[in-house]
Each structure stands twice: as structure tokens, then as C-alpha cells.
């Protein structure tokens, strides 16, 4: 797919990264060769090396490209947790969006791959966390601070509240998927879990009627 305004070099970068993502997810880091990535990308091995110095560099680009996809989720955090949206069930909508996005099968496979290589490439795991989950956590904490100042929730530590929210939402389904090798829950099941998590969160942090 051609993107408007995209240069030929940028398009080739994107095609190589997409091919590398599929190869790494399918065969793991050690089982993937630059030659296979070149074949999947419809390019020569020399072209792949011209754009990316080596396999580790390319794997790093795959990790960063995936982490930046969190930007869309981060934007949804600030939109759905505005004062008006919060009163209309924005937290529940957000929870459903987050759990279905983060439990995507390909994203889970890449997450496992990053963890499996964390000892020898710790900087990649750090980048994934900082550019993805940590940014979402910070954005959520900022929204919770604003909601607290407007009397819509009650928390003395918005960052801790954000941590509790993500913990309630993701701890069980994420660990289940990471240890069993796949996401066995349907979208409907994930959304029911999200709704229950929001209910529990609001028991702890919601403003109690007088």
C-alpha cells in the first residue's frame, strides 16, 4: 500500500520492516535470516543491508515501529477521559479499547519475542516499555489528575491509580496469554472482563454519593 508523500526510500524501509515483523514473529529472532526477510520484502539481501546495517538493528526498528503504534491508544486515553466523555462511560469504552488492542495476537507474539531476547538486547525492551506502556501510564495518570481536580474520582496519587487500573485490566488475561501461548478469550469475553475491571476500579476510586 502506497502512502501519500512517502519517498521511495521510506516505502522500502516500511516494506522491509513489515516483512521482518512477520518473519521474526513466525520464526523467532534466531530462526530468522536477513535473506528470508529480503525474500519476504521482495528485495535483494544487499538492499536490506543498505537500509539496515544488521539483523539486530532491523529487529530494533521492528520493536520501535510497534511501540509507536501506541500513539493511537494514547490519543484515545485523552479523548475518552475528558470530563464529558467520562460521564458518558468513557472509562468503560477506553478499557474495552485497550484490552482488545493490547491482546492482539501478533502484538502478544512480538511481546514474547522481546522478552525472550531481553537479556542480550535489554535496550529494546526498555524502548518498548518507555515508548509504549509507560507513555500510556503517564497519559492515564494525567487524565486521572484532571478528573480528581474536578471531583469526578478521588485519588491522592494519580500515577498509582493508573497503575491499579492497568493491573486490574490486564494482569489476568495478559499473563494467561503469555504463559499459554495464545489469547484464548473472545472479544466479548475480553470486553466483559474490561467492564468488571472498571467496576472494581470505581469502587476504589469513584466518588461516593453523599
Helix and strand layout, with pairings?
Blueprint: H1 8-27, H2 34-41, H3 45-51, H4 55-67, H5 70-80, H6 83-87, H7 90-102, H8 105-116, H9 122-149, H10 158-180, H11 187-205
Helix pairs in contact: 1-2, 1-4, 2-3, 4-9, 5-7, 5-9, 7-11, 9-10, 10-11
Q: Explain this structure to me?
A:
- By secondary structure, this protein is mainly alpha-helical.
- It has 11 helices and no strands.
- 76% of the residues lie in helices and 0% in strands.
- The model has no long low-confidence stretch (mean pLDDT 89).
- The radius of gyration is 20 Å and the shape is elongated.
What descriptors fit this protein?
single chain, 210 residues, mainly alpha, 76% helix
The run of helices and strands is: HHHHHHHHHHH
Report the principal-axis shape.
elongated
Number of helical segments? 11
State Rg: 20 Å
Overall number of strands: 0
The poorly predicted ranges are none
Structural class: mainly alpha
Query: In whole angstroms, how far apart are the ends?
Result: 56 Å
**Strand count, sense and closure of the main sheet?**
none
Share in β-strands: under 5%
Mean pLDDT: 89
Helix content: over 70%
Quick structural overview:
This protein has eleven helices and no strands.
Amino acid at each position: 500500500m502506497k502512502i501519500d508523500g512517502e519517498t521511495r526510500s521510506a516505502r522500502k524501509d516500511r516494506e522491509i520492516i513489515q516483512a521482518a515483523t512477520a518473519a521474526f514473529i513466525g520464526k523467532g529472532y534466531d530462526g530468522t535470516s536477513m535473506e528470508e526477510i529480503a525474500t519476504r520484502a521482495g528485495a535483494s539481501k544487499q538492499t536490506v543491508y543498505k537500509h539496515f546495517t544488521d539483523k539486530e538493528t532491523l529487529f530494533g526498528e521492528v520493536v520501535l515501529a510497534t511501540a509507536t503504534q501506541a500513539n493511537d491508544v494514547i490519543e484515545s486515553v485523552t479523548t475518552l477521559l475528558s470530563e464529558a466523555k467520562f460521564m458518558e462511560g468513557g472509562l468503560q469504552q477506553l478499557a474495552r479499547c485497550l484490552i482488545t488492542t493490547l491482546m492482539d495476537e501478533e502484538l502478544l507474539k512480538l511481546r514474547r519475542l522481546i522478552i525472550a531476547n531481553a537479556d542480550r538486547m535489554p535496550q529494546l525492551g526498555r524502548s518498548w516499555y518507555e515508548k509504549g506502556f509507560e507513555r500510556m501510564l503517564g497519559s492515564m495518570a494525567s487524565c486521572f489528575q484532571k478528573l480528581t481536580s474536578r471531583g469526578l474520582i478521588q485519588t491522592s496519587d494519580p500515577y498509582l491509580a493508573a497503575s491499579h487500573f492497568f493491573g486490574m485490566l490486564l494482569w489476568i488475561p495478559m499473563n494467561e496469554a503469555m504463559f499459554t501461548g495464545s489469547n484464548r478469550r473472545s472479544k466479548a469475553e475480553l470486553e466483559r472482563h474490561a467492564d468488571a475491571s472498571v467496576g472494581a476500579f470505581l469502587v476504589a476510586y469513584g466518588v461516593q454519593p453523599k
